[in-house]
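Figure 6 in text form: structure in, sequence out.
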């Protein structure tokens, strides 16, 4: 994670800055390069958790494993300063800072592409940017670098399981229309209800798509107090949690409503049904039962 990122950044900068600073970039508190001359030192100084994209906390497929792994989304601040060599001057330090500044601003470093390597790196950057300057020793300048991306422990096991073979997509287009065949009369017989809406269904597999039946609507009656309605719905088959299921054919579902013995206004609630459970609510209609 952070250690691997710090080491890789030092390695890349050390290989890319121009002489006489090439090969003289090291991690802070790690052994420096041999020989006289200034040493560019860098180290992780701070980090900040980032909000996931669209609040997503899903595992991600990252380099090093085909299985999705849990990642940390972080902004990491790295401080960079220069230790002058024996007899080195402030001007030598400033030249080293110049070299690092110019290199960090390279397009492939700003995108993080230059830090990518084979194997399991422990990080994947979205961006690498120069940050505000920091105070160095003896009035010499230092700088900060801000990296944003995903971080994970090297070698961490990913989530394993059966691969997704297909995606089943069902579309319900608004508005939803209700047609009531006859007035609802208290104590009267069943009245046909028709639910009309635009629909489509498709089964998506790798490289192919096929039409898919839309399925059914799940419907229920709700009383004014939020409890079950007094009327009775009858459709193609019973559904979960007090719903009835009405199959959708050519953009229409049919069912009947048997009114209760007393006048009342109840709400017909229409949901999508995915074949196993009740889905998103599509519409609500007030059904008034006359005396």
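Output sequence:
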């Amino acid at each position: 994670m952070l250690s691997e990122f710090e080491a890789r950044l030092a390695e890349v900068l050390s290989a890319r800055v121009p002489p006489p600073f090439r090969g003289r970039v090291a991690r802070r508190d790690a052994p420096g390069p041999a020989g006289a001359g200034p040493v560019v030192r860098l180290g992780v100084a701070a980090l900040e958790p980032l909000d996931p994209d669209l609040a997503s906390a899903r595992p991600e497929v990252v380099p090093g494993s085909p299985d999705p792994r849990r990642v940390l989304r972080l902004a990491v601040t790295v401080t960079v300063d220069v230790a002058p060599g024996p007899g080195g001057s402030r001007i030598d330090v400033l030249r080293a800072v110049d070299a690092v500044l110019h290199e960090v601003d390279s397009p492939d470093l700003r995108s993080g592409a230059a830090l990518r390597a084979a194997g399991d790196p422990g990080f994947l950057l979205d961006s690498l940017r120069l940050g505000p300057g920091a105070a160095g020793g003896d009035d010499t300048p230092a700088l900060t670098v801000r990296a944003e991306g995903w971080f994970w422990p090297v070698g961490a096991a990913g989530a394993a399981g059966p691969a997704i073979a297909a995606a089943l997509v069902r579309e319900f287009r608004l508005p939803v229309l209700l047609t009531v065949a006859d007035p609802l009369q208290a104590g009267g017989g069943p009245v046909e209800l028709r639910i009309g809406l635009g629909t489509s269904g498709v089964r998506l597999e790798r490289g192919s798509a096929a039409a898919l039946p839309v399925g059914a609507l799940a419907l229920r009656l709700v009383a004014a107090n939020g409890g079950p309605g007094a009327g009775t719905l009858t459709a193609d088959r019973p559904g979960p949690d007090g719903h009835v299921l009405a199959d959708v054919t050519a953009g229409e579902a049919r069912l009947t409503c048997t009114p209760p013995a007393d006048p009342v206004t109840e709400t017909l609630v229409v949901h999508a049904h995915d074949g196993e459970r009740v889905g998103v609510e599509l519409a609500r209609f007030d059904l008034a039962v006359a005396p």
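Caption detail: The two ends are 72 Å apart (CA to CA).
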